[in-house]
Amino acid sequence: MSILKTEDLRKYYGTGENQVRALDGVSLQVEKGEFVSVVGTSGSGKSTLLHMLGGLDRPTSGKVIIDGQDISELKDDALCIFRRRKIGFVFQNYNLVPSLNVYENIVLPVQLDGRNVDEEFVKEIVDTLGISEKMENLPNNLSGGQQQRVAIARALVSKPAIILADEPTGNLDSRTSQDVLGLLKITSNKFVQTIVMITHDEEISQLADRIVRIEDGKILSRA
Prior knowledge:
By secondary structure, this protein is an alpha/beta fold. It contains 7 helices and 10 strands. It has helices at about 45-55, 75-85, 100-110, 120-130, 145-155, 175-190, 200-205, and strands at about 1-15, 20-30, 35-40, 60-65, 70, 85-90, 160-165, 195-200, 210-215, 220. Helix 5 (about 145-155) packs parallel to helix 6.
């Protein structure tokens, strides 16, 4: 079953001779539980695609359908709620709240949504990610790899339809990168979690179930 689908997705900036076609007719399907890597050089359109998939920006035309919902039809407030409940984000810079401890950072999306925290699920996540001993620590007392594990836990805690990972190992050394990517793979399998990862690193992309290559705003391959 397709959990994510785009139909003729386009994002243009400017007009006339100065027009930039960041996305130029991207159609893509991702199945439930699939771990997909989107690979492209700088300026290829991969980050723009992630912003469209995450509802962080609106397309010029085309559709983004997540868990059966065309998010381009949603008003801003409804889109914000949908994003909080259905999309988990893992960013290159972790984006943890420095004044909150690890546990508080992880459960923040659920609490913002006014829902009860599934403590058993939180325990299962943090045990899987190897951070169960760090629950009381503040982010600045953690290594980069540990902070990214917290970010992955936060993305998982809402049981979203998809997780979008934007260059998740960009600030990590090669060994830590392999550890974090391995954990993303494990969580994808264990929790049947759909993950779309944006990266420019060919080696890292090989850990995904499928690699989608994008250049000049168009998909070149989707093997």
